[in-house]
Design a protein that fits this description.
With about 170 residues, this protein is an alpha+beta fold. It contains four helices and three strands. Among the domains are: about 40 residues, no CATH class; about 40 residues, no CATH class. β1 and β2 form a beta hairpin.
């Protein structure tokens, strides 16, 4: 999968004064070859490039356009102006049902918490502990509080080194 970025990272640099220096791909008509931003101004301009949630970034034209008369004959869901759900079928569009947090845990981390590990029967969730202090006390009691075998506290997690950014591109 190729990820495209709205900003060419290789043309970004930091000035000695802490400003953001961005070299332009091609000079403007007036000869400008780079622009310099305050860090907060740069973040504001970068945030403006992020689309709002729910906004479609793909525009369809021709028979794939939402209101084209032949769209229902082409699109598998048969949605469109000429589509019909048929007698007694209701809407052709399936209703969206949000996943429960247990389903999300299973999908993302592979953790199955809706069935018993021993007998395979259904598990009923009766409580959810969200208080960080209570969670810390439980983990400490179980020996899972982040200390190693000698009782020494492990260092806090940190971001990868700055030179490793090329690994994730």
């Amino acid at each position: 999968m190729v990820c495209t970025s709205p900003v060419a990272i290789e043309r970004l640099s930091l000035t000695a004064q802490g400003h953001i220096h961005y070299a332009l791909k091609t000079p403007y008509r007036d000869g400008t070859t780079h622009v310099i931003f305050e860090p907060l101004d740069f973040l504001a301009r970068l945030a403006a490039l992020v689309p709002s949630p729910g906004v479609n970034l793909t525009r369809y034209h021709g028979v794939f356009a939402p209101n084209h008369r032949l769209r229902a004959q082409i699109v598998p869901a048969q949605r469109g102006r000429g589509g019909s759900a048929g007698p007694g079928q209701g809407s052709a569009v399936p209703t969206h049902v949000a996943m429960s947090w247990a389903q999300r845990l299973k999908r993302v981390f592979g953790i199955e918490i809706e069935s018993c590990q021993h007998c395979g029967g259904a598990v009923k969730i009766i409580a959810s502990i969200e208080d960080p202090q209570v969670i810390g006390r439980i983990l400490e009691h179980l020996g899972l509080d982040g200390s190693n075998a000698h009782g020494q506290q492990l260092p806090p997690a940190r971001a990868p080194p700055s030179g490793a950014s090329g690994l994730f591109d």
